[in-house]
Design brief:
Shape: flat
Largest sheet: none
Oligomer: single chain
Number of strands: 0
Order of helices and strands: HHH
Mean pLDDT: 84
Distance between the termini: 82 Å
Structural class: mainly alpha
């Protein structure tokens, strides 16, 4: 964008903002509320975009730290770490499924006791 074009854009924006400020007292309450809501939505969108950037940076830092801690994947230590991580994930999955089955069993036992108490 040329300097001349930037100046034109800046001038147009200034005129638009001045017009908005002049017309603001003429707005009804609904228009004022809508304007405040829109400004707040712009602030929230800006804050969310900034948080997204921070989160992306944090994830990149965590990923690089994790890769650095694992070392080279082709070394015996790197291979052992990968195997152990896979086993840990499998055990965690088994543990979660076991807890779910225990919860279901308790529900069935409670249901059975309730139905026995009703004479079914």
């Amino acid at each position: 964008m040329s300097i001349e074009r930037c100046g034109e854009t800046r001038l147009a924006l200034t005129v638009l903002m001045r017009t908005l400020q002049e017309e603001r007292p003429l707005m009804d309450d609904d228009a004022k509320a809508r304007d405040r809501t829109y400004e707040r939505a712009e602030q929230v969108a800006s804050a969310l975009a900034a948080m997204g950037d921070e989160l992306r940076d944090a994830i990149a830092d965590v990923n690089s730290s994790a890769e650095a801690s694992l070392g080279d994947r082709d070394t015996p230590l790197g291979k052992a770490v990968r195997v152990l991580n896979n086993q840990l994930q499998a055990l965690t999955n088994i543990d979660a499924r076991t807890e779910e089955l225990e919860r279901r069993l308790r529900e069935l036992q409670a249901s059975r006791q309730t139905s026995n108490g009703l004479g079914v």
